[in-house]
## 1
Amino acid sequence: MSVDRKQGAVRASGSGIKVTCPHCEKPTIVRTSEKITRQTRQAKLICTNADCGHTFIVVVEAVKTISPSATPHPEVRMQGPTLKHAVARPVSA
Ligand SMILES: [Zn+2]
């Protein structure tokens, strides 16, 4: 995953998602993290730059399936992979 914006950035690493401070763009650390829904998690982050000290909230949401689950949960509703060859055809009797 890679989401770069004018201020701050989110990028994946080998051990998790790294979020930089939207103000000074230095690394942050997660102070607390809690489940909001089955697909959404909220975390409080603090900037590691002592001169900045920004503390803020981020929300991480599962939004799109790349490869379907073998054990799907009925409450999970996500955009699925694009099925380019799935075409609706009239049923002939
Ligand atoms: Zn900062």
## 2
Amino acid sequence: MGLFSMISNHRSKNRFRRMEQRNKKHASTRTEYLLNDKTPFNVTEAFRNLKAAISVSVPKKSEGVVIMATSAYPEDGKTTVTANLALMFAVSDAKVVLVDADIRKGRIARYFKRKSTPGLSDYLSGQASLSDVVHRTRANENLSYITCGTHSPRPYELLESDEMKNLIEELKKYYDYVIIDTPPILVISDALALTPIVDGAVLVCRHEVSYVSDISRAISTLRFSKANILGVIVNDFKESSVRKYGGYGNKYSYGYSDGYGYAPSAETTEEDKKA
Ligand SMILES: Nc1ncnc2c1ncn2[C@@H]1O[C@H](COP(=O)(O)OP(=O)(O)O)[C@@H](O)[C@H]1O
Ligand SMILES: [Mg+2]
């Protein structure tokens, strides 16, 4: 039994409608949360562990390591996890650039109180230079970021372009980690354009919100595009509900399951359903 058994697997004919409602409800109240001095110890510690787990799962190279985060659906916590993971790497003295590749609905700019334009899409379409789009953060001097940029009618094409490939090659020369936030893969395929140019992908799911079947489909989609799946991050993990149902006594708000070992099979088993 792995971390997946803690994830809600209720099935409902209305689940897409409910998901839309959930997205609408959250859209107006969305917040951006970056680790700081007042963050509870267990949350900071969970990100530290996540950072450590990821750094050991990617072999060290002479150039920077490129990691992308994705998830099945919106609101799973991709942006929250990527922004804070990038910050955690920066805190531990690595030079990091956070790239917002969610050209449709990117929110990285909001974390740093900046406009999202000009950004990645503007650079890729030749409308902005690299120095126009790479910004330093006040949160940490090792952390830089690139916002998503101007809305484009063809994000997938921009992300799979030679310009994107060359940009990543260039960033790898200057940064130890290039961390890329992407749109949800079961909604749009933009993230798949990046799998050939990243060293590894992490899949974010949300405790008691994500369906095992959706996570399984997301994993299959990533595998199909030959992504090196480093692991699955269980975001918004609720210790109390796991205790109640007799699960692990894991005290962290974020869990991390490395490798394929914990992945559910494509067919949901009886055991999964009971979880
Ligand atoms: N672990 C968490 N605890 C509390 N709120 C969270 C957590 N993770 C994400 N959120 C909130 O949920 C919303 C969606 O998160 P976000 O990272 O934007 O998701 P995504 O990028 O997958 O669409 C945001 O308002 C964010 O602040
Ligand atoms: Mg996001």
